[in-house]
Design a protein that fits this description.
Helix content is 42%, strand content 15%. By secondary structure, the protein is of the alpha/beta class. The strands form two sheets. The chain has a seven-stranded parallel β-sheet, with helices on both faces. The protein has a six-stranded parallel β-sheet with strand order 10-9-8-11-12-13, with helices on both faces. The radius of gyration is 21 Å and the shape is globular. The chain starts with 5 loop residues before the first strand and ends with a helix. The relative contact order is 0.12.
Length: 403
């Protein structure tokens, strides 16, 4: 029996330091990949005790600072430290721009294949310029350099593959493989308990809409808050949304939430990303989950909601239509961008009203809620298992290594 390939997985996020969908992806993929390869995880941050973690890395002290440019330079220093530790690996697999440069440099330094998973694309997130300043130019450089020379690019949706080829015309289609994100349906399943709801002031007897995501332009939270003005008075709104990307985003969202609370009750904003068991309980009791993103290459949070038996109302963008079956597991709301750098809806009020209308339709029809929730659960069980995703990923490694 041939030896399993030695794969170095490079990532910014790894348990317990996870804040977004890419981190969730890496967490579950690494668990499933262990059955197929000899996996060594290299991550940003503090030391971890998990046996698969081969190294953790901190920025260089000489680059200390909190301004966006300094933070980007700190990321580059971590990438360099990672590369030094990769001697002996047969393949490097990087996730997000935070680790892409390390994968590229490992390819050059050790002559090994580099696989990068594209969870999002910097050219399609221009609003990051307001968050990162000159750091956005550095993040864009890292991604462009890596993606154009990677031996294989994994796109998390078919739409994501189209975006990769459009944004980076030097990348040939044959080097881009579509391998979807997944979900652990044993962990994400309906939770009948209500202790977490009580702790956060969420009334389980009132139908509520739940949003989970970062407070950023990309996730469309401002459009959801506008839509909430059109929901029936008895409908609650629960926002599981952590630290805003910028002070300006914080001020904008805080103002909209404060205004909303003057006109309706049941508005709960949990300003933290909850541990998974708590998240699962809040999802399980929601009448409907909403994903109003203006850019979403995949949208793993939609799978999480569906696994908990909750209907989804989401923007019809990116990879979301590959997850949510319109009219069966939820509703897709058409989205037309305004053509500006921020990619806001061309008709913001129209988009808000359309979101509210579909949310209201689900909430007002209990039988529909039940049918859609059951169909969503069945869909994730049938199509989005991590074991299948790990098999496809390991097969890609094998092709690159000639095994």
């Amino acid at each position: 029996m041939p030896a399993r390939p030695k794969v170095a997985l490079l990532t910014r996020e790894y348990p317990p330091e996870i804040y977004g969908g890419a981190g969730v992806h890496v967490d579950y993929l690494s668990r499933a990949l262990g059955e197929h390869v000899e996996l060594a995880v290299h991550a940003f941050g503090k030391p971890r005790s998990a046996p698969e973690v081969a190294g953790t890395y901190q920025p260089w002290d000489a680059l200390a600072g909190k301004e966006p440019q300094a933070l980007a330079l700190q990321t580059l220093s971590v990438n360099l430290a990672m590369v030094k530790a990769l001697a002996g690996a047969e393949l490097a697999h990087s996730h997000t721009w935070y680790a892409n440069l390390a994968g590229h440099l490992a390819k050059l330094t050790y002559g090994i294949p580099h696989v990068m998973t594209s969870h999002s694309l910097e050219p399609l997130r221009p609003w990051k310029a307001e968050q990162l300043g000159g750091g956005y130019a550095l993040s864009s450089f890292c991604e462009k350099t890596a993606i154009e020379s990677a031996d294989a690019v994994i796109a998390v949706s078919a739409r994501m593959k189209e975006d990769v080829l459009r944004a980076y015309p030097k990348v040939v289609s044959e080097r881009v493989a579509v391998i979807h994100n997944g979900i652990d349906t044993n962990e994400f399943r309906p939770d009948p308990r209500t202790d977490v709801l009580a702790r956060h002031g969420i009334d389980p007897t009132t139908p509520y809409v739940v949003f989970v995501g970062r407070v950023t332009r990309q996730k469309g939270i401002v459009h959801l808050l506008d839509a909430a003005r059109y929901l029936a008075p008895g409908v609650g709104l629960v926002l599981l949304a952590g630290e805003p990307d910028t002070p300006a985003m914080r001020e904008e969202v805080e103002a909209k939430v404060a205004e909303l609370k003057t006109t309706r009750g049941g508005v709960v904003w949990v300003q933290a990303m909850l541990p998974r068991p708590e998240l699962i309980q809040v999802l399980s009791h929601a009448a409907v989950f909403v994903c109003p993103s203006i850019y979403e290459p995949f949208g793993i949070v939609n799978l999480e909601a569906m696994a908990c038996g909750v209907p989804v109302v989401a923007s019809a963008i990116g990879g979301i239509p590959e997850i949510v079956e319109d009219g069966r597991t939820g509703f897709l709301v058409p989205f037309t961008p305004d053509g500006t750098a921020l990619g806001a809806p061309a008709d913001p009020d129209g988009f808000a009203k359309a979101l509210a209308a579909k949310l209201g339709e689900v909430i007002d029809t209990p039988g529909l809620r039940t049918r859609m929730g059951g169909a969503g659960r069945a869909r994730v069980e049938a199509s989005f298992s991590w074991s299948s995703i790990a098999e496809k990923t390991a097969a890609l490694y094998g092709r690159l290594l000639g095994r």
